[in-house]
Amino acid sequence: MSWKDDHRAHKEETGLSWSEYHDRWFVHRNDIDDLTEQMQAIEELLEATKNTYERMHREVFEANIMEDYDDE
Length: 72
Description:
Blueprint: H1 3-14, H2 18-25, H3 29-71
């Protein structure tokens, strides 16, 4: 069996041509590698953003405590 035989029923449900179906439902290995690299970069950025947020949150908390202390 070919890949077309394996996917024929789903392709017919979509109403797409084979070319359109292949472009829409199949992913090339190089594309997966690129997406994996992009996801790793996003995860690193998210971690850095989270760390910055936590640091800033702590600094604001400390500033609020100092302000309350000065008022007394």
